[in-house]
Amino acid sequence: MEYLNRSGIKHEKPEPRGEGRCVLYHKCIEKKWWTEAVSTAAWIINRMSNSVTAKTSYEFVYCTKPQLKNIKVFGALGYANIPDEKRRKLDAKAFKCRFMGYEDGVSRT
């Protein structure tokens, strides 16, 4: 808290739980995915600019702007590629899946 005060940062406690609940309801996703929905909401909130400083929480922590070019909609349907070595000639090249959040430590660029 002391660092926040010295830096002129107003401490706010965003509540991503509400956003996570809305996402689950809107996308008709089972409640067992609630943790991923809340984590994704927090991931996005941390990359939204602050009205006071025009910087994101991410920028304050990592001293660089977040990359948002590959941002995805939670629960969006998509297709994941099946590598050549894991399929035979007439097998499907992809399978249908749903985006369920960002994994820590994985590059999104």
Automatic annotation (TrEMBL):
**Biological process GO terms, please?**
DNA integration; DNA recombination
Name this polypeptide is given: Retroviral polymerase SH3-like domain-containing protein
Keyword set, alphabetical order: DNA integration, DNA recombination, DNA-directed DNA polymerase, Endonuclease, Hydrolase, Magnesium, Metal-binding, Nuclease, Nucleotidyltransferase, RNA-directed DNA polymerase, Transferase
Ranges for domain Retroviral polymerase SH3-like: 78-105
| Keyword Hydrolase annotated | yes
Pfam families named in the record: SH3_retrovirus
- One GO molecular function term? DNA-directed DNA polymerase activity
Q: Does the keyword Magnesium apply?
A: yes
Question: According to the lineage, what is the superkingdom?
Answer: Eukaryota
Among InterPro entries, the record links this protein to: Retrotran_Ty1/copia-like (IPR039537), SH3_retrovirus (IPR057670)
